[in-house]
Design goal:
single chain, alpha/beta, Rossmann fold, seven-stranded mixed β-sheet, 39% helix, binds S-adenosylmethionine
Protein backbone atom coordinates (compact mmCIF):
# COMPACT_ATOMS: atom_id res chain seq x y z
CA UNK A 1 0.00 0.00 0.00
CA UNK A 2 1.10 3.55 -0.65
CA UNK A 3 2.79 5.75 1.88
CA UNK A 4 1.55 9.10 3.06
CA UNK A 5 -0.62 11.32 0.90
CA UNK A 6 1.05 14.68 0.48
CA UNK A 7 -0.59 18.06 0.16
CA UNK A 8 -2.99 20.05 2.28
CA UNK A 9 -4.89 18.10 4.89
CA UNK A 10 -2.82 14.99 4.04
CA UNK A 11 -3.27 11.61 5.65
CA UNK A 12 -5.27 8.60 4.64
CA UNK A 13 -7.81 9.36 7.39
CA UNK A 14 -8.77 12.57 5.53
CA UNK A 15 -8.93 10.68 2.24
CA UNK A 16 -11.18 8.05 3.82
CA UNK A 17 -13.46 10.74 5.23
CA UNK A 18 -13.77 12.28 1.78
CA UNK A 19 -14.52 8.87 0.25
CA UNK A 20 -17.23 8.35 2.89
CA UNK A 21 -18.79 11.70 1.95
CA UNK A 22 -18.77 10.71 -1.71
CA UNK A 23 -20.26 7.31 -0.87
CA UNK A 24 -23.12 9.04 0.94
CA UNK A 25 -23.62 11.57 -1.87
CA UNK A 26 -23.75 8.96 -4.64
CA UNK A 27 -25.06 5.92 -2.72
CA UNK A 28 -21.91 3.84 -3.26
CA UNK A 29 -21.55 0.28 -1.97
CA UNK A 30 -18.60 -0.48 0.37
CA UNK A 31 -16.98 -2.54 -2.42
CA UNK A 32 -17.02 0.55 -4.66
CA UNK A 33 -15.39 2.66 -1.95
CA UNK A 34 -12.68 0.00 -1.47
CA UNK A 35 -12.06 -0.10 -5.23
CA UNK A 36 -11.76 3.70 -5.45
CA UNK A 37 -9.33 3.71 -2.51
CA UNK A 38 -7.23 1.12 -4.34
CA UNK A 39 -7.20 3.39 -7.40
CA UNK A 40 -5.86 6.22 -5.22
CA UNK A 41 -3.20 3.90 -3.79
CA UNK A 42 -2.12 2.79 -7.27
CA UNK A 43 -1.94 6.42 -8.46
CA UNK A 44 0.10 7.44 -5.41
CA UNK A 45 2.53 4.55 -5.84
CA UNK A 46 3.14 4.85 -9.58
CA UNK A 47 5.33 7.76 -10.57
CA UNK A 48 4.73 6.89 -14.23
CA UNK A 49 0.95 7.33 -14.01
CA UNK A 50 -0.04 9.79 -16.75
CA UNK A 51 -1.20 12.57 -14.42
CA UNK A 52 0.33 15.30 -12.30
CA UNK A 53 -2.37 14.76 -9.68
CA UNK A 54 -1.20 11.72 -7.72
CA UNK A 55 -1.42 12.85 -4.12
CA UNK A 56 -4.45 10.97 -2.71
CA UNK A 57 -5.93 13.98 -0.95
CA UNK A 58 -5.95 15.88 -4.25
CA UNK A 59 -6.75 12.90 -6.47
CA UNK A 60 -9.80 11.97 -4.38
CA UNK A 61 -11.36 15.24 -5.56
CA UNK A 62 -9.80 15.91 -8.96
CA UNK A 63 -10.12 12.34 -10.26
CA UNK A 64 -12.55 10.37 -8.06
CA UNK A 65 -15.10 13.07 -7.17
CA UNK A 66 -14.90 14.54 -10.66
CA UNK A 67 -15.51 11.14 -12.24
CA UNK A 68 -18.35 10.32 -9.84
CA UNK A 69 -20.08 13.59 -10.66
CA UNK A 70 -21.00 11.96 -13.96
CA UNK A 71 -23.66 10.13 -11.95
CA UNK A 72 -25.53 13.45 -11.78
CA UNK A 73 -26.35 12.88 -15.47
CA UNK A 74 -29.37 10.57 -15.86
CA UNK A 75 -27.93 8.98 -19.01
CA UNK A 76 -24.85 7.88 -17.05
CA UNK A 77 -26.94 6.46 -14.19
CA UNK A 78 -29.11 4.51 -16.63
CA UNK A 79 -26.56 3.39 -19.24
CA UNK A 80 -25.78 -0.27 -19.86
CA UNK A 81 -22.73 0.37 -22.06
CA UNK A 82 -20.38 3.33 -21.84
CA UNK A 83 -17.15 4.12 -23.66
CA UNK A 84 -14.66 6.62 -22.22
CA UNK A 85 -12.78 8.04 -25.20
CA UNK A 86 -9.33 9.34 -24.28
CA UNK A 87 -9.39 7.62 -20.91
CA UNK A 88 -5.79 8.47 -19.94
CA UNK A 89 -5.46 7.29 -16.33
CA UNK A 90 -9.00 5.91 -16.43
CA UNK A 91 -11.12 8.95 -15.63
CA UNK A 92 -14.03 8.68 -15.77
CA UNK A 93 -13.94 4.99 -16.89
CA UNK A 94 -12.53 3.36 -13.73
CA UNK A 95 -14.47 5.58 -11.36
CA UNK A 96 -17.83 4.90 -13.00
CA UNK A 97 -17.06 1.18 -13.37
CA UNK A 98 -16.41 1.01 -9.61
CA UNK A 99 -19.58 2.96 -8.81
CA UNK A 100 -21.80 0.93 -11.15
CA UNK A 101 -20.69 -2.74 -11.37
CA UNK A 102 -23.56 -3.51 -13.80
CA UNK A 103 -22.26 -0.94 -16.31
CA UNK A 104 -20.11 -2.33 -19.15
CA UNK A 105 -17.26 0.14 -19.54
CA UNK A 106 -14.79 0.45 -22.39
CA UNK A 107 -11.69 2.51 -21.63
CA UNK A 108 -10.22 3.67 -24.95
CA UNK A 109 -7.07 5.58 -25.70
CA UNK A 110 -4.74 6.06 -28.65
CA UNK A 111 -1.78 5.37 -26.37
CA UNK A 112 -1.35 1.65 -25.72
CA UNK A 113 0.64 2.15 -22.50
CA UNK A 114 -2.23 4.15 -21.01
CA UNK A 115 -4.73 1.42 -21.87
CA UNK A 116 -2.42 -1.19 -20.30
CA UNK A 117 -2.14 0.97 -17.17
CA UNK A 118 -5.93 1.32 -16.92
CA UNK A 119 -6.62 -2.40 -17.39
CA UNK A 120 -3.95 -3.28 -14.79
CA UNK A 121 -5.46 -0.75 -12.39
CA UNK A 122 -8.95 -2.19 -13.03
CA UNK A 123 -7.62 -5.63 -12.09
CA UNK A 124 -6.07 -4.25 -8.87
CA UNK A 125 -9.41 -2.60 -8.09
CA UNK A 126 -11.21 -5.93 -8.56
CA UNK A 127 -13.36 -4.61 -11.43
CA UNK A 128 -14.76 -7.17 -13.86
CA UNK A 129 -16.64 -4.65 -16.02
CA UNK A 130 -13.79 -2.79 -17.74
CA UNK A 131 -12.47 -3.56 -21.22
CA UNK A 132 -9.43 -1.68 -22.50
CA UNK A 133 -9.29 -0.72 -26.17
CA UNK A 134 -6.17 0.69 -27.77
CA UNK A 135 -7.40 2.79 -30.66
CA UNK A 136 -8.82 6.03 -31.95
CA UNK A 137 -12.40 7.00 -31.22
CA UNK A 138 -12.93 7.92 -34.89
CA UNK A 139 -11.51 4.66 -36.26
CA UNK A 140 -13.10 1.82 -34.33
CA UNK A 141 -15.55 -0.19 -36.49
CA UNK A 142 -16.31 -2.67 -33.67
CA UNK A 143 -17.68 0.19 -31.57
CA UNK A 144 -20.14 1.63 -34.08
CA UNK A 145 -23.68 2.27 -32.75
CA UNK A 146 -22.84 0.19 -29.63
CA UNK A 147 -23.02 2.65 -26.74
CA UNK A 148 -25.62 4.34 -24.58
CA UNK A 149 -23.04 6.90 -23.46
CA UNK A 150 -19.79 8.23 -24.89
CA UNK A 151 -17.93 9.91 -22.02
CA UNK A 152 -14.96 12.24 -22.41
CA UNK A 153 -12.95 14.41 -20.02
CA UNK A 154 -10.22 16.75 -21.23
CA UNK A 155 -9.93 15.22 -24.71
CA UNK A 156 -11.00 17.70 -27.40
CA UNK A 157 -13.23 20.71 -28.14
CA UNK A 158 -16.95 19.99 -28.15
CA UNK A 159 -17.30 19.95 -31.95
CA UNK A 160 -14.58 17.31 -32.28
CA UNK A 161 -16.12 15.26 -29.47
CA UNK A 162 -19.51 15.36 -31.18
CA UNK A 163 -17.93 14.02 -34.37
CA UNK A 164 -16.08 11.27 -32.46
CA UNK A 165 -19.13 10.30 -30.44
CA UNK A 166 -21.99 10.20 -32.96
CA UNK A 167 -20.95 7.02 -34.83
CA UNK A 168 -20.31 5.14 -31.56
CA UNK A 169 -23.72 5.95 -30.06
CA UNK A 170 -26.99 4.12 -30.58
CA UNK A 171 -29.87 6.40 -31.57
CA UNK A 172 -31.07 7.90 -28.28
CA UNK A 173 -27.62 7.60 -26.69
CA UNK A 174 -25.70 10.60 -25.38
CA UNK A 175 -22.31 12.21 -25.50
CA UNK A 176 -21.44 13.29 -21.95
CA UNK A 177 -18.50 15.71 -21.91
CA UNK A 178 -16.82 16.87 -18.71
CA UNK A 179 -16.11 20.53 -19.42
CA UNK A 180 -14.83 23.65 -17.68
CA UNK A 181 -15.59 27.32 -18.05
CA UNK A 182 -18.21 28.21 -20.67
CA UNK A 183 -16.65 29.03 -24.04
CA UNK A 184 -19.38 30.50 -26.28
CA UNK A 185 -17.42 29.85 -29.49
CA UNK A 186 -16.77 26.21 -28.55
CA UNK A 187 -20.46 25.79 -27.74
CA UNK A 188 -21.51 27.43 -31.02
CA UNK A 189 -19.28 25.09 -33.03
CA UNK A 190 -20.46 22.10 -30.98
CA UNK A 191 -24.10 22.90 -31.76
CA UNK A 192 -23.34 23.37 -35.47
CA UNK A 193 -21.51 20.04 -35.68
CA UNK A 194 -24.30 18.31 -33.76
CA UNK A 195 -26.74 19.54 -36.40
CA UNK A 196 -24.63 17.91 -39.12
CA UNK A 197 -24.39 14.60 -37.25
CA UNK A 198 -28.10 14.02 -36.45
CA UNK A 199 -27.42 15.01 -32.86
CA UNK A 200 -29.66 17.30 -30.79
CA UNK A 201 -28.95 20.70 -29.27
CA UNK A 202 -26.11 20.47 -26.69
CA UNK A 203 -27.33 20.89 -23.10
CA UNK A 204 -25.04 22.39 -20.48
CA UNK A 205 -25.45 21.81 -16.72
CA UNK A 206 -23.18 23.18 -14.01
CA UNK A 207 -21.75 20.86 -11.36
CA UNK A 208 -19.60 21.25 -8.24
CA UNK A 209 -17.92 17.87 -7.74
CA UNK A 210 -15.82 19.06 -4.80
CA UNK A 211 -16.22 22.11 -2.56
CA UNK A 212 -13.45 24.20 -4.15
CA UNK A 213 -14.31 23.25 -7.74
CA UNK A 214 -15.06 26.16 -10.04
CA UNK A 215 -16.57 26.34 -13.51
CA UNK A 216 -17.24 22.63 -13.91
CA UNK A 217 -20.10 21.62 -16.16
CA UNK A 218 -21.43 18.76 -18.21
CA UNK A 219 -22.32 19.18 -21.83
CA UNK A 220 -24.58 16.41 -23.08
CA UNK A 221 -25.74 15.83 -26.65
CA UNK A 222 -28.31 13.23 -27.69
CA UNK A 223 -28.03 11.21 -30.88
CA UNK A 224 -31.41 11.67 -32.57
CA UNK A 225 -31.04 9.80 -35.84
CA UNK A 226 -28.77 7.39 -37.75
CA UNK A 227 -25.20 8.48 -38.40
CA UNK A 228 -25.21 10.42 -41.70
CA UNK A 229 -23.34 8.96 -44.66
CA UNK A 230 -19.67 9.86 -44.84
CA UNK A 231 -19.09 9.52 -41.08
CA UNK A 232 -16.84 8.69 -39.36
CA UNK A 233 -14.43 10.62 -41.57
CA UNK A 234 -10.83 9.42 -41.99
CA UNK A 235 -8.77 9.27 -38.76
CA UNK A 236 -7.46 12.69 -37.76
CA UNK A 237 -9.85 14.68 -39.98
CA UNK A 238 -12.11 15.82 -37.12
CA UNK A 239 -9.17 17.73 -35.67
CA UNK A 240 -7.38 18.63 -38.91
CA UNK A 241 -10.45 19.95 -40.72
CA UNK A 242 -13.00 20.62 -37.98
CA UNK A 243 -16.64 20.97 -38.97
CA UNK A 244 -18.84 23.80 -37.76
C1 LIG B 1 -5.58 15.11 -21.39
S1 LIG B 1 -5.81 13.39 -21.51
C2 LIG B 1 -7.24 13.16 -20.51
C3 LIG B 1 -7.27 11.79 -19.87
C4 LIG B 1 -8.45 11.53 -18.94
N1 LIG B 1 -9.72 11.52 -19.67
C5 LIG B 1 -8.50 12.50 -17.81
O1 LIG B 1 -9.35 13.40 -17.82
O2 LIG B 1 -7.66 12.41 -16.89
C6 LIG B 1 -6.43 13.13 -23.17
C7 LIG B 1 -6.33 11.70 -23.61
O3 LIG B 1 -7.06 11.53 -24.82
C8 LIG B 1 -6.38 10.63 -25.67
N2 LIG B 1 -6.88 10.85 -27.03
C9 LIG B 1 -6.73 11.98 -27.78
N3 LIG B 1 -7.35 11.84 -28.98
C10 LIG B 1 -7.94 10.61 -28.96
C11 LIG B 1 -8.73 9.88 -29.92
N4 LIG B 1 -9.01 10.38 -31.12
N5 LIG B 1 -9.19 8.65 -29.57
C12 LIG B 1 -8.88 8.12 -28.36
N6 LIG B 1 -8.12 8.76 -27.43
C13 LIG B 1 -7.66 9.98 -27.73
C14 LIG B 1 -4.91 10.96 -25.42
O4 LIG B 1 -4.05 9.90 -25.75
C15 LIG B 1 -4.91 11.25 -23.90
O5 LIG B 1 -4.62 10.10 -23.15
Amino acid sequence: MSGSPSGAGGGWAAVDRRLAELAARYGLEPTAVAALRTMLEVLADDEHAATTVRSPIEAVDRHVADGLSGLEVAAVREAERLVDIGTGIGVPALVLAAARPSLEVVAMDTVGKKVDWVTACAARMGLANVEGVHGRAEAWPAGLERFDVVAARAVAPLGVLVEYAAPLLRVGGRLVAWKGVVDPEEDRVGAAVAGQLAMGEPESAPTRPWPAARDRRFVTVEKQGPTPRGFPRKPGMARKRPLG
